[in-house]
Amino acid sequence: MNYRINLRKRILAKRITIQSGYKNNHVFFVRTFDFVFALFLVFPALFIIGIYYILYKIVNRQSGSFIYKGERLGMGKKIFQIYKIRTLSLVDEKKYYSKIFSPGSNSELKFGKFLRSTRLDELPQLFNILKGDMSLFGPRPLRQTIYLKNREHIPNYEMRFLVKPGLIGYAQLLTPHSAPKQIRALIDNHYVTIPRNPFGDVLFILWSSIVLCKNFAYEIFFTLKEMVLVIRYNFSLRNRRRMRRVKRKGIKGYITDCAFNKMSKKNVQVVDINNEDLCIMTDLDLDIDEEFCFCLEAVIDKKRNAKRKKAKCKSIVVKKRENKPGRNYKWSYVLAWVPVSAFNHYKIEQYILRQSIAKNMVV
To answer: Which domains, from first to last, does the chain contain?
Structure first.
């Protein structure tokens, strides 16, 4: 497909700044590097885990171990036990065992969403690195059920088992969590063929550390902002929107026909969007429960060559309100949207919601 060819070109372009892959041509050096670096990180990680353990016991009053253990496939499809901080309730763990966790499902423990978005729940995997089950860099480890489900329709899916699974991977950083497995596998397979080297490893550690710290700071800021709103306006935590609204400049939207051709010349202003709903303003008079096709467009790489990314979805009007006089548009609407395909879902989360960890380095 064309998007695979274009994706491969963008991956190759990013190798100018990142020259290290997953392939292990020097077993002793790579194992020593992983062990020493993981040992160096274990002590600050234990401090963070200890703080959350106290909060976990105070806030989350339910049975179950603090550390989650689960079976994953490693190098050569060898099964090993992975360690994570528990972020889901015991009941929902079984429900999501063979599925991808969806945001806003109310299945997370308190502080679980924060841990997952900052990747702090993966700190116990440093012990997997010390044991030799994992490496610092590599494709993320898979459940056996997900591997069996995807191996039939993803080309060269077996390539990921040529190297050890990693604590950090390029696909994990450059794409949102819900990106299609085909796209993530394409990125991982590319770096499986590139050898690791000391200079590239150090660069990747520095770059990923900066990216994770920025993401951590963003989550802290947003969490504090929500707490201030709750205190100042006496909002109920239970009545908050389950998912964050994103206000992004440069996002355009327009109503289309079933073939996704633009129907009206009247402008549509996108106010904000989350994983379920879209708020727009327009002069078009739409009815409640009216269904139509909708196209979202984002402009990326403004400093270089501007590129437009379009995503197609189907929508329905769930709320309607007439704006006060003086506004640019007469009507405000809330639309419930559903992407027409997994790839369009990926484009919305990648280019519009910007849900990848490395938000400024998307592929």
So the answer is: 2-230 (no CATH), 251-352 (2.40.10)
